[in-house]
Amino acid sequence: VSSLEKTVSAILPPDPGREKSVRARLDSLTKPLGSLGRLEDLAARVAVMTGADKPSLARKAVIVMAADHGVAAEGVSAYPPEVTRQMVLNFLNGGAAINVLARHAGARVVVVDAGVSGEPLEHPALVSRRIGNGTSCITRGPAMTRAEAVKSVESGIAVLEEEAGKGLDAVCAGDMGIGNTTPSSVITAAFTGKPPEDVTGRGTGVDDEALAWKVSAVKRALETNRPDPADPLGVLASVGGFEIGGMAGVMLAAAARRIPVVVDGFISGAAALIAAGLVPLAKEYMFAGHCSTEPGHRAILAHLGLRPVLDLEMRLGEGTGAILALGVLEAAVKLMNEMATFGEAGVSEKGKK
Amino acid sequence: VSSLEKTVSAILPPDPGREKSVRARLDSLTKPLGSLGRLEDLAARVAVMTGADKPSLARKAVIVMAADHGVAAEGVSAYPPEVTRQMVLNFLNGGAAINVLARHAGARVVVVDAGVSGEPLEHPALVSRRIGNGTSCITRGPAMTRAEAVKSVESGIAVLEEEAGKGLDAVCAGDMGIGNTTPSSVITAAFTGKPPEDVTGRGTGVDDEALAWKVSAVKRALETNRPDPADPLGVLASVGGFEIGGMAGVMLAAAARRIPVVVDGFISGAAALIAAGLVPLAKEYMFAGHCSTEPGHRAILAHLGLRPVLDLEMRLGEGTGAILALGVLEAAVKLMNEMATFGEAGVSEKGKK
């Protein structure tokens, strides 16, 4: 049995019977009924998915999967492809946005080389899970072989397992990869059925002309590969990316271990489409951290039935929206765990005089 | 010169010339231009309002002003009036939502008795700034005298000054007071000109019948007192609350010291209307923490031109939405301060190959 098959079969539905007792606990706390709004829903989901009465989200990690994309050579990005490699070094040196936000949230950053172009990077803190030297260009053929697609998902599973072994209460799935909004648009079009124009955006910031060219690249990738949403591994192999497969693996392994996983923006969302395509139950363990300005992201969230915690017009990736939302999630859980009840605090309840 | 006059005259416009250099700094950081979205706007506002190149939001306080309201005797709340007093004790014991969220954010909670009904509360951590033994019922006459209105604002100024003396980088203005959504609706109607039906909500959770009664109370308070928005202290005196005046004072004193102040929900928002009515420039130092589900809150935010950071369907008060948003604000500032620049990290910039 492969690690993918093992993980898939380990994903079980959360116990719906727990919702009632969790809600009773939330209603007993010293606040007007329901007045913490979505914080109550978030806390309840964490309690139900983890099965813990007083879940902790103290041990947090952001797994940042980095890889390159053959399609970047088509000029679909505002930045040159070597930026993927340069940003991996920036992550390892602690200077990127995700490093700052992870420090703020008290989370560790796990940087994974899932297939960055060029000589393999070497750094004591880098997790090397290279599936290839960047993907092939998806406008001309498949991104990778089916075996590589499986391997990329399994590499994500392995990274999550390793982190779980160190102690892990919640995880964010982030990405780095110049050009990776293009495969994400193709994946989104494949799963949601939306036209390329509706799910293709400016990514790191291309102008009108480059955006039109990017839409044409998405169309050509769809025509060349004809990705079939009924075959999520086939979609990943034909039009995906190594970091996208890796993040899908992280999400599946987190679901198998009942660890809440916070999906980040558009690329992380594309990985969530692959993961949920393989195992629909995986959605039960996902939170949508935020809503990106990339137009395809809303289509992904609607397709997955996930409501974002934050809407701050971010479009950076790296797990930045996810880790910021995880701070809110942790606050919600602490409220559930730490607030006094009406009885404990001697506070009169509604309508009781 | 009174402390109110002194504070009012100390509120100066932020230096608009700083915006450009702050934006240049943000654009030099290793991320696609503008990709941190509203986090960049929030960080830039903090830098401009404080005048600091690398502002810190490390020293944070939530000032929770508590007071009672004569109008509560009219049955406008789902909870009995003694809950104000009980909740003050809950704050002092660390068991309320605001205590949990302040601990999560690393902020101190300052609990102020601005006029809680009954025997004065005694507790070593309680700040006693009692203006009266609860307000008078606003459907029958003014809430307080004009002298008390001035005193309530000055008490808030004094509390902020005391906290500033301990070291304060940012402050949240929160409230506790059974019945206080009713005066807040009257204040909102007075300043925005909206009809009472549009700015009166369920507060802590009244049913349809009680809501209709509450709307009628708001109408009667408006008819009895005819609050004039051109006279903000008159509005406060006739239809306000001691905690609302106190929060307005906190906001004015924060603006005078160029300390960012995070407005919480509906009641804190009503205080912001009073503060901005007295000194329009005070708005320049305000952030709207979140958007409450109380219908009048959107009218307040539109009137003040403030865009909320969070929208989590909260309606608890106490400063809960404000402190949660301050965590996001602090993250935004840390990004500006701590991220590596393209030059420092050796990352290629847009379009440069």
How would you summarize this macromolecular structure in one to three sentences?
The structure is a homodimer of 353-residue chains. Chain A is built from 15 helices and 6 strands.
Describe this structure in words.
2 copies of one chain form a homodimer. Chain A is an alpha/beta fold. The first copy, chain A, contains 15 helices and 6 strands. Chain A has a 6-stranded parallel sheet with strand order 3-2-1-4-5-6, sandwiched between helices. In chain A, helix 2 crosses helix 3, helix 3 (38-50) packs across helix 14 (320-338) and helix 7 crosses helix 12 (266-278). The model of chain A has no long low-confidence stretch (mean pLDDT 97).
Strand order of the largest sheet of chain A: 3-2-1-4-5-6
What is the molecular shape of chain A? globular
**What is Rg of chain A?**
20 Å
Determine the mean pLDDT of chain A.
97
Oligomeric organization of the protein chains? homodimer
Major β-sheet annotation of chain A: 6 strands, parallel
Number of helices of chain A: 15
Q: SSE string of chain A, helix = H, strand = E?
A: HHHEHHEEHEHHHHHEHEHHH
Please specify the SSE layout and strand pairing.
The structure is a homodimer of 353-residue chains.
Chain A: H1 3-10, H2 18-27, H3 38-50, E1 60-67, H4 82-92, H5 97-105, E2 107-115, E3 127-128, H6 146-166, E4 170-176, H7 181-192, H8 196-199, H9 208-225, H10 232-239, H11 242-256, E5 261-263, H12 266-278, E6 286-288, H13 295-304, H14 320-338, H15 342-345
Helix pairs in contact in A: 1-11, 2-3, 3-14, 5-14, 6-10, 6-11, 7-9, 7-12, 7-13, 10-12, 11-12, 12-13
